[in-house]
Amino acid sequence: MTTTAFDMSAQLSRRARTMNASAIREILKITQQPDVISFAGGLPAPELFPIEDVRRAADDVLTRYGPAALQYSTTEGHAPLREWIAMRHGIPAANVQIVTGSQQGLDLLGKVLIDEGDTVLVEAPTYLGALQSFQPYLPRYAQIPTDDGGIDVEALERVLHEQQAQGQRVKLLYAIPNFQNPTGRTLSLERRQALVELTARHGLLIIEDDPYGELRFSGEPAPSLYELGLALAGGDPERNHVIYSSSFSKTLVPGLRDAWVQAAGPVIAKLIQAKQGSDLHTPTFNQMIITELLPILPRQIETVKRVYGERGQRMIARISEHFPAGVEFTQPQGGMFLWVTLPQGLDTTALLPRAVERKVAYVPGSPFFALGGGENTMRLSYSSAAPEKIDQGMRALGETLSEALA
Description:
Elements: H1 14-18, H2 23-30, E1 37-38, H3 51-65, H4 79-89, E2 96-99, H5 101-113, E3 119-124, H6 128-134, E4 140-147, E5 150-151, H7 153-165, E6 170-175, H8 189-201, E7 205-209, H9 225-232, E8 242-247, E9 259-262, H10 265-278, H11 284-293, H12 297-322, E10 328-329, E11 337-341, H13 348-357, E12 360-361, E13 363-364, E14 377-381, H14 387-405
Parallel strand pairs: 1-12, 3-4, 3-6, 6-7, 7-8
Antiparallel strand pairs: 2-9, 4-5, 8-9, 10-11, 11-14, 13-14
Helix pairs in contact: 3-11, 5-6, 5-10, 8-9, 12-14
Subunit structure: Homodimer.
Pfam family, one: Aminotran_1_2
Protein name: Putative aminotransferase
């Protein structure tokens, strides 16, 4: 009996065929050699993880809760954790949903908000992981220009009018106002206020992704878009058009995968249903550990801010010292990243193998653009690099760029 070869790829859904591998994850595969200095992955510094506090918290959780810590739990999340988040933001716990990492939150938001063909507005550039999360729901993207002050709100208004004139349904704006991934830029207070008011007038949702907001090491803090939206709504979270997402991954530990979304009731209700179909609930034990760690969170944040501030400033100093003329770069006030722009005509994807030959790696910028572009840009992460590695890596990268410009 003969059988015909079964073409499994032909059975994949249309959504599956739109999925692409993360450029960052693929790059990380080629930089695993121990002698390569990688500024590619956005990794928190592992030496700052509060290991002894986590060990104590895990023991306390098992002592206090026993088998309940290892049991299935509610989809909404561990009640004390939700209540703590809600209290900090001045909203009811019913408006808070715990998710398994911010990435799951973005995926679930895409699932419950985006219909095929909806226009999703994103910054140019924007977080690659958000594009990956939204893409299976088949949106159309429109890019909003950014500069050192963040989103260009006047350009946003022009794009809104253009999209609406073309009969396109503009569903939401995805934004990272604090120490943006990938650029490290921060949206100015004036633009935050204008952005919230403009989107409210147009009936446009905002997804505010804020995993880095606590990691400010210079400059003055600004209210979140969610806070401004809440004020505009008279303090009523049910009328706030801003959806807020944040995480404990960048402040405590990433491996526990604890994050949250806060939004109006109808959105939360659908997130609960979508999460039930995804993973039922975020691991109970992990949520309880995070809750036990909340008393040390202020201390941990101060430690992380200090170290990242030192490393960020060191990277900026070495860029100024070693990079050739004509190279521009951002100077973040917090977070984990900075953005480098090379002269036109250079391609950072093509340059990457030459950098790896010199034992240094980065992320090319083009994958962060929803509609293409940015071939002459790159993202550098300073968070997990020791000072001597920053010195060595920036020297090697500067040599690579100087050679390319020669």
